[in-house]
Design goal:
128 residues; mainly beta; 7-stranded mixed sheet; 4-stranded antiparallel sheet
């Protein structure tokens, strides 16, 4: 089992920045891919960014490319999401997730069904 705890959400004005953190405990963090997803009210949970176990393979949703940066520190069992130039449409609950099915591979998946452990989420609100 893996436990994931997100932090760093909050209220920010458009154009501002936030850094989300996701601390992992349990299984060996450095072996598996991690993802960030978000869910706005009334909408489905959507992919934001993902990173493989080594940090060498990264994907972003088109909507956040160039503004958000995902990274990980395996020594601290933590994955980050740096969010810059925030827009009101970025308002959502942000979730981190772990994909334990394919440890130490180059595979980085971008669908919610691929991830088998989820955090509780952290609210990000961007005001205009």
């Amino acid at each position: 089992q893996v436990q994931l705890v997100e932090s760093g959400g909050g209220l920010v004005q458009a154009g501002g920045s936030l850094r989300l953190s996701c601390a992992a405990s349990g299984r060996t963090f450095s072996s598996y891919a991690m993802g960030w997803f978000r869910q706005a009210p009334g909408q489905e949970r959507e992919f934001v960014a993902a990173i493989n176990w080594s940090g060498g393979i990264i994907y972003y949703a088109d909507s956040v490319k160039g503004r958000f940066t995902i990274s990980r520190d395996n020594a601290k069992n933590t994955v980050y999401l740096q969010m810059n130039s925030l827009k009101p449409e970025d308002t959502a609950v942000y979730y981190c997730a772990a994909d334990l099915k394919l440890p130490r591979t180059h595979v980085v998946r971008r669908t919610t069904s691929a991830y088998d452990h989820w955090g509780q989420g952290t609210q990000v609100t961007v005001s205009s």
